Amino acid sequence: MFYRKFPFKTSKFCRTKFRFEQPRSYKMSYNAILVQKFNPGTGSLEWDLQAESYDYTQEIARSGFADMLHDEERNLKYNLALNKALNILRIKGKVPRVLDIGTGTGLLAMMAVKANASAVFACETFQPMVKCSTEVIAHNGFADSIKIIPKRSTEITVGPQKDMEDKANVLITEVFDTELIGEGAIGTFNHANQQLLSEDSVVIPARATIYVQLIESHLVTSWNRSMPINLGGDFIYPPSKVSCCPGNGAVHDIQLAQLKEAHFKALSDPIPIFNFDWNSKVPIPVEDTNTVNFVAKCSGKAHAILMWWTLDMDMAGEIVLSCAPPWAHPEGNELPWRDHWMQAIYYFPNDITIKSEGERLHLTGYHDEYSLWFGLQTETPPSVTLPRPFCDCSVHLACSRPRLGQLNDNDRNQKYIRVLEKVISSDTVCLTLGDCCLLGLIVAKLGARKVYAAERNPHCRRVLEAWVKRNDLEEQVTILDGDLEKRKLDLKVNLVLGEPVFESSVLPWHNLYFARWKNNVQHLLADGVTKILPGKAYLYAMAVEMKDLWKIRAPVRSTQGIDLSVFDNLIESAIDTSDSQVEPHPLWEYPTRALSPAIQLMMLDLTTLSLMTKEIPEVEGKVNLPVTGTVNGVALWIDWQLDEATVISGGPTAPVTLGQNVQWDMHSKQAVYFIKDPVSLQTEDRSLSYQINFVPDTYEYKFKFSIL
After folding, report:
1. Per the count of CB atoms within 10 A, which of 98, 305, 310, 391 is most buried?
2. Which domains does the chain carry?
3. Which of the following is catalytic: 174, 179, 499, 545?
4. What InterPro entries does the entry give (predicted)?
């Protein structure tokens, strides 16, 4: 089983943005806790008994080895701005009183003490982090210099015998996300300026600017819009409602540095669209719009907006912290890596044609308290406010953006088509298993007698129904819910087909649920003649050197003269207690060098109906590490074999060259096993040993990797 986990981030006005769903939990009376977990073997959520400290250890584990504390540029520029502000106050004869909102480990508060602030208050609402910051602060010898206020900033009281005797005249806080305002920064700063800070206060950071850039990109569009499927000149078309849907309003955060020049065309220069003055005593509007007029850089189709932001850490704007991509960064291409603040993509519901270079355009930005969205006009902008995008076609509710990209991947689709052309006949009765699986439409178009499409998710069923109707395939394609164990069909199935992809899957091998589901429909199959596609699944591994991703599991040790070893020990203990061995990551966004060839660890024959009862032995072995580098992880993925010549890979999309960066599939997440103690390879006599156990009941793997 696999806990669906999320990165921890506290804030005062918090709209938490999860990478994985938070597991539901209920405490029991005998020092234990029931936790809801995803079981890939059954495709369902199940309850599991854990120690009472589970919630604490899991949330701390997922927060601590994030890259935020490894972001030395962030730490340095906060420290520089803080020292500058305190020096200015002292020159003016002021006594610095510092408030740190969302202190976390207490890092910024301890910086304030080291900068000789007269009083320091640290606010933190998440109780496990209150305990953590208390221990870290005490370990650094600052327990008597920092008052920790264990509550939300909006609950802080000011006055005699209250949380703070007087209002602070310095606020230092980091309440930003990729979207800048998604963690409630507007509300946090507004409240602090009105209730917690003096009239002459200094806020760090001082200001923020959001930048946008208009682009044309078929790759980016494929993550938001359904495309036709080409069957040699005959097309399967998406429903019109799908084609013009504005899409999912949630931010699409991404590492833009990993997009290549061929992936997009810039139709404009970077444009500042919103400015936020965090020092303002006049409340920042919770809802606002701004229209900028500009000229196009070249002709093209406007598909989307790229977005990033910068912070002026000081009032003079001399200390700047930028999240810009390489081509727009003020300090050039050698950027600090960060995963806590990335860049973002915002989509237009329809293509907007730009006829020529120099054409005048009007871009309107909108924001509420937590979100941004944009509209583009070639004519005079309308006075009507564009509502926040919301999916009305079900596709964006049923499919993640990588899944949409996968469904639109023409090379991938053509592989399925070439294999299916060999096996489909007028006698074919096909059962498709998966989520938002369009393969059944291809089978029907190729002339099959009947297609039964099983979809567990009601959103997926609505999506597929619309596709079937749009392409006049109602007679050939029947859509079923996922409960097939007691179902009877008019015709016996002689082809079971899947990609296989299930939206509930977290790790690559969770899609092996296809085998379990397939095994439960034996009563629907024609005796002895049923073909299963894919027929085999291969688990692969590769020793890698991750340029930056390793930092999310690495100890911080110290930063800006602050000892964080207590925090490191807490996180390591929490991970040992609660965390999974592997994590899912889209490795195309994180450069990784191959330090070993791809290793086939295990093959599973999906045509074997007795798979669930077979004992699959432990697999052991080793592989040489012939190139120099630092082994800090092992990448894992699944390849699905359709026939002897055709494989759908969730891993590398090009031949792997040892010592070079791997080109990963852009529409899949790979699994990453983090080596606890990275090993530097200086000679060619080192090897990677592995030990893998497959658990048939749950389709989970247990891994052990070590460097010899």
Report:
1. 98
2. 1-204+550-563 (3.40.50.150), 208-387 (2.70.160.11), 409-533 (3.40.50.150), 537-547+591-707 (2.70.160.11)
3. 174
4. Arg_MeTrfase, MeTrfase_PRMT7, PRMT_dom, SAM-dependent_MTases_sf
